[in-house]
């Protein structure tokens, strides 16, 4: 029986609208969202399979969209998976889907809103294994900032534990979440979750400055050289751009900032510089060389920041399937 359209939040309306406009258009919209927004929206998308026609019409009218019948085909989780894959690529989509369906731990989720310096001060007295679990719940960018803020004597031990972590039991996560929630206040499955690992550790390491990265890798190598080698093999650094083919390099140069390139190349090895130069016109290459020489002395931190900005663009293009970066020892056909 039809009734009055219910009151809906902005997220619920957005989920209904994405359902109505179809996978291709929804994928384009979701490309503009960050992972936190996608995760939040995904929870509401899971609940729109049985949405009433009246509610749908209210939303479509509110967004000044047209719907011929008001009856939009929808396949629940399959639709969500398809949209996420088109928007983010298979790897990121898988991670988002898993985060949408696994149990949430409010205390750990709340840590994502705490700045790295404050968080380091709060958890530096915890056991290194506890700190590693906390790092595993953060985005790589925040985790790298937090790792850099920890006392030096802790970093190697925490990194080693994070790199070798696989599953953590839900009762342990529940207790840690409650502890973190209490600490913050004062100053659909119950299964073990996959956390940490060499891939996450490698992603964190590529976001650190060279000095901090080198010190941590040395500590890990002292404990386990094979583990250090495995992490190093997964790390994507500026020198890896040499693995791009010419078409991929040209695609990358279309997207990167003209301010970042001269700075980034100041700290690059000759082979990388030549790779960029040969994929430009002679005139453009000469102008870039002149720009590099005219800047005078520059801070190493500025060079590393520009290189990281270019690597972020490269990762994005690779996730979108627009370029391919061969891994270590990997042959391309």
CATH topology of the largest domain: Annexin V, domain 1
Radius of gyration: 23 Å
Q: Tell me about the biggest sheet?
A: 2 strands, antiparallel
For this structure, what is the CATH homologous superfamily of the largest domain?
Answer: Flagellar motor switch protein FliG, alpha-alpha superhelical domain
| Largest sheet, spatial ordering of strands | 1-2
CATH top level of the largest domain? Answer: Mainly Alpha
Oligomer: single chain
Please count the helical segments: 20
Low-confidence stretches: 64-76, 188-192, 327-333
Distance between the termini: 60 Å
Derived structural class: mainly alpha
N-to-C SSE string, H for helix and E for strand: HHHHHHHHHHHEHEHHHHHHHH
What is the number of independent domains?
3
Percentage of residues assigned to helices:
55-70%
Overall average pLDDT: 77
Based on CA inertia axes, which overall geometry fits? globular
Beta content comes to under 5%
